[in-house]
Write a structure and sequence with these properties.
With about 600 residues, the chain is an alpha/beta fold. The protein has three domains: about 260 residues, Aconitase, domain 3 (2-Layer Sandwich); about 140 residues, Aconitase, domain 3; about 160 residues, Alpha-Beta Barrel (Aconitase, domain 4), CATH 3.20.19.10. Helices cover about 30% and strands about 20% of the residues. The strands form six sheets. A seven-stranded mixed beta sheet has the order 22-21-20-19-23-24-25. Strands 4-3-2-5-6 form a five-stranded parallel beta sheet, sandwiched between helices. Helix 2 packs across helix 5. The longest helix has 17 residues.
Length: about 600
Amino acid sequence: MMTIIEKILAAHSGKNKVVPGDIVDIAIDVRLARDFGGAGVVKNLLDYDLDIADSSKTFFTFDCNPTGSDQQYAANQQKCRVYARENGISVFDINAGIGTHLAIDKGLAVPGSTLVSTDSHANIMGAVGAFGQGMGDRDIAASWAHGTVWFKVPESVRINLSGHRPPMVSAKDIALNLLKTFGAGSLLGYSVELYGDEVERLTLDERITIASMATELGAIILLFPPSAAVTDYCRLRSHKQFTPFYADPDATYRKKHDLDLRQFKPAVSLPGQPHNVAFAEKHKGTKIDSVFVGSCTNGRMEDMREAAMLLDGRKVAPGVVMKIVPSTDEIWNECLKEGIIETFKKAGALVGNAGCAGCASGQIGQNGPGEKTVSTGNRNFKGKQGKGDVYLASVATATASAIAGHITTADDIPERPSVFVTPARENKDRHILPRSGMQKSLIIEGKIWLILKDNIDTDMIYHNQHLAVTDMKEMGRYTLGNLTGWEDYPRKSEPGDIIITGKNFGAGSSRQQAVDCFRSLQNQAVLAESFGAIYERNAVNAGFPVLTYENLNNLELVNRDTVIIDMGKGTVTNIKNKRTVAISRFSEVQKMIYLKGDLLLI
């Protein structure tokens, strides 16, 4: 008399029977750690001097940032790679795809098995009738070290979906309609089983889509009794012997719900809360800026084919950005083989390598402030997919919206897309920065920092991982953050300070931040034997004094000496010993820009 979850947990805890509320130690068949949590797992294992119980069941999956474009992700990934080499652990690296999908497609997770991951959507395993849970770094470290974790047996809820779904209702729409019905709290902490004739006919890809949103429903897991097609798929992909679990006819459920699929409609989650669901028809015409198709919820092959079918012979609306990311490399390659990638590119979409994309910062899919996005992801919390507004929708609705330029459904794509209207610009908005009336002096005085190194490049001055910072007030904290020995410069620098350095200061890129970071700290000037050509222009045009010298030895300078620089005459004087040497002086152009404050104020 047990439900599916009770049978799985009983089988993996060596018990004949478990009931809700029991706390059992369950054996974990598949133990995953992702790139963002993997380094924490490794740290716990090393801190507590723990070994790996069974490396054949233990895996790293680099899916949150499979480009390694973020330095923290890149560092974490490398820590995990090194640990994996030393301990015989397999790594699904940045070319592989989403870990939970790989677990199914590679035959690691099968009906009736158990899996844990540092992924809150590990309950996707419910799609194949397996137990999957997202857990924190300590839990995962414990599972790696001992092969088991404790778990409290949850109560179960049975949902019966009767009737046939309408033609326009996709698996994602089923998930969104469930969210509309139950919200984020009604199923909190329950294991949910789904039944019905239409449920039995759902494909594996559709089951993955629905199971992926168990977390948003507050459920422990959404479990599908494995169909013959799903079981056959898992047997084909796995060399394991397994027996699917099905609930007993007289199993006890805390609640039972009967829902009529005929009442379900295409839906969208409104920005900020996945459970704030409305029927899509009520929001048709909402102008959008971007669309994302992918994630662990909708990055499967069937999703790619549906998007391609709608995009075939069409174009993404002018000004709208469409980003598409398959969930695994296998699916990506199948898209290439079937000509789907070509369809996407002809339509004007950006295609990324396999991974999480829109849900994880650092790959693709993020949006900016004020941007309206239709996404096939499973979450649209503020900041989750960027700083704009995110509407969750099905692949069909998202793709149709990309073509239309506004929210719409696949049966209502206009012949001509909506376009952005540029508002008239009033003259009063033309000058945002006021012209300074303050008289600037060509003679400055300040304490010095001697950084007598040659070829200090712009990455050392201001690392490229901070290039998205556009507010100069924020730039100072990153100054010299990639220059060995000077990482603490922002903390010890004082307003009015002057830097004296060596040859070719500012070599490298054209980034303006490498100049503006010093202005942010209210440093007054940089003296160098020579400057990178672009750096020198950037500094001059920003009204920031940069001057060259040939030899300062006669000044006998030490750190924190005070100097006086006369930029008109071209001299520098050490106040301590009253010695003066010649340096370059301002050209007429540099002088004019400096006194005005900026090239754009001339």
